[in-house]
Amino acid sequence: MTPLLSVHGITKHYGTHIGCADVSFDLYPGEVMGIVGESGSGKSTLLNCMAGHLAPDAGAVVFDTRTDGPKDTVTMSEPERRMLGRTDWAFVHQHARDGLRMGVSAGGNVGERLMAVGERHYGDIRNRATDWLDRVEIDAGRVDDRPTTFSGGMQQRLQIARNLVTGPRLVFMDEPTGGLDVSVQARLLDLLRGLVRDMGLSAIIVTHDLAVVRLLADRLMVMKSGRVVEAGLTDQVLDDPQHAYSQLLVSSVLQV
Amino acid sequence: MIELKNVSKTFTLHNQGSAIIEVTNDVSLKVSAGECVALTGASGAGKSTLMRMIYGNYLSQAGEIRIGDVDLVRAEPREVIALRREILGYVSQFLRVVPRVPTLEVVAEPLRAIGIGAEEAEERAQSLLAQLNIPQRLWSLSPTTFSGGEQQRVNIARGFAHSYPAMLLDEPTASLDATNREVVLSLIEAAKARGAAIIGIFHDEAARARVCDREIDVSRFTPKAAA
């Protein structure tokens, strides 16, 4: 089987400081991988390098494109990469307002991504937008309201709808449940899990919440000071961590 | 079906003075299809550890753990994931679920994961829940608020939803009343009859005597203190 995403030696420096160093892994279709580590460990830098938001200093991010097969997204042309970002890739930001257009209605936010890939029929766009609002449990009556009138949890769900409407194959998520209260988090996790299973999505989730990765991720990578210190099956890394830092991380979780 | 060859495991506690704890040493055992083997030994002897090593959430330092044609010690994460989806089932002592998900879906999920349609999966889930005496009015609720015994039965229903060729059972009859204990034992017997290889931990001696074909005392794998 061809990996959907194959990352080789991604390295990014900020001046003399290491953002992330020599990260490599393969992600296969349908797999969900979690990246955990303390803040400053380089997990967001890595995610942004993979998603094309930051240019890595070295390394390759090879994506199995629908038309041309495996292709390095770091060296591909800007328009090509942007096209990927609108079709097969999706990026869920920690703060919904970074991923939404706050001045446009909820329906418009979802419809915009459809229009970006060539949809022109207003009725179709509106129907699909309403359908997606329903899937992420936003009342259809709110389709014409702006996200500024939504709660934090609703904004996050709207961002997910906007990202998934074009049927991407790979979703990058940066702390998708960060900043939400626990009951809303649970609801969002349940939603994400259902979507991942039903749409056969692959996903890379950056988080510092070990409970989130336990529920969502098949595989886990632990980062410290820009490097991957341990990687493996999620429950193996959480139940039997091998590296000193992973052991510290797992044993530091408060029991409720 | 399940075969262990010279498997060893140590825990290294880096943050507690790098203490190295040897847990099991040179384990070799074999369980064939249709056979149920009990792991015995005093508390702390390493029964659950050995079981988790076979499930792959504990890493073994040496040896070979073969389930079907996969060697768990050396397998890639995605191979282990596929193995757990299709071949290897595990009924743990505790139910771990996503909050808010209804019981019926929790039980049907392993079937959905192998591509069985929603309707068929739910039918199977319903029949298992009914068999294990979970009242129908609870099926649409999340099991997070259920009593310990109810959670345990939901866990068993989930574990037996798919007919795994290899199964690991950690105290499946603990905290169950006589009626439900009987149901669980008959589920185990049915699994054996269809050819599943089973490894179990049973503190309930009568249950052990009834469903298990032989016993393996894990304390013989416990490393002796260096002389």
Give an account of the 3D structure.
The complex is a heterodimer of chains A (256) and B (227). Chain A is of the alpha/beta class and 256 residues long. Chain A contains ten helices and ten strands. Chain A has helices at 43-50, 78-86, 96-99, 106-116, 122-135, 152-164, 182-199, 210-216, 234-239, 244-251; strands at 5-14, 17-27, 32-36, 58-65, 69-72, 89-92, 170-174, 202-206, 219-224, 227-233. In chain A, the strands form two sheets. Chain A has a six-stranded mixed β-sheet with strand order 6-7-8-3-9-10, sandwiched between helices. In chain A, strands 2-1-4-5 form a four-stranded antiparallel β-sheet. In chain A, a hairpin with a 3-residue loop joins strand 4 (58-65) and strand 5 (69-72). Chain B is α/β, with parallel strands linked by helices. Chain B folds into two domains: 1-87 and 164-227, P-loop containing nucleotide triphosphate hydrolases (Rossmann fold), CATH 3.40.50.300; 97-162. A five-stranded parallel β-sheet of chain B has the order 6-7-8-3-9, with helices on both faces. In chain B, strands 2-1-4-5 form a four-stranded antiparallel β-sheet, with helices on one face. In chain B, helix 3 runs parallel beside helix 5. Chain B starts with a strand and ends in a 10-residue tail after the last strand. The relative contact order of chain B is 0.19. The interface between A and B is medium-sized, with 24 and 21 residues.
- CATH-wise, what's the superfamily of the largest domain in chain B? P-loop containing nucleotide triphosphate hydrolases
β-strand number of chain A: 10
- Succession of helices and strands of chain B: EEEHEEHEHHHEHEHE
CATH architecture of the largest domain in chain A: 3-Layer(aba) Sandwich
Please supply descriptive tags for the structure shown above.
heterodimer, A: 256 residues, alpha/beta, Rossmann fold, six-stranded mixed beta sheet, four-stranded antiparallel beta sheet, 10 strands, globular, B: 227 residues, 2 domains, five-stranded parallel beta sheet, 7 helices, 9 strands, 36% helix, 25% strand
